[in-house]
């Protein structure tokens, strides 16, 4: 899994580019925006393709054992 995690904020215009580009198909359409699911591998494709910058990234917390 990648070292970054991604989420989509309220500036999402629901164009669907992120969902189409996701290599693991973990982005789904919600009522007001698209959502990134737990299957995200942290590749950043959605971040790169979003035309409005709605995909935000942050550091992934280490897994707790």
UniProtKB/TrEMBL annotation:
InterPro entries referenced in this protein's UniProt entry, alphabetically: 4Fe4S_Fe-S-bd, 4Fe4S_Fe_S_CS
Alphabetized SUPFAM superfamilies for the sequence: 4Fe-4S ferredoxins
One Pfam family linked to the record: Fer4_21
Entry keyword set: Iron, Iron-sulfur, Metal-binding
GO terms of molecular function: iron-sulfur cluster binding; metal ion binding
Residue ranges annotated for the 4Fe-4S ferredoxin-type domain, each copy included: 2-28, 30-60
Keyword Iron in record: yes
The protein's name in its UniProt record: Ferredoxin
Species, as recorded: Veillonella dispar
Lineage: Bacteria, Bacillati, Bacillota, Negativicutes, Veillonellales
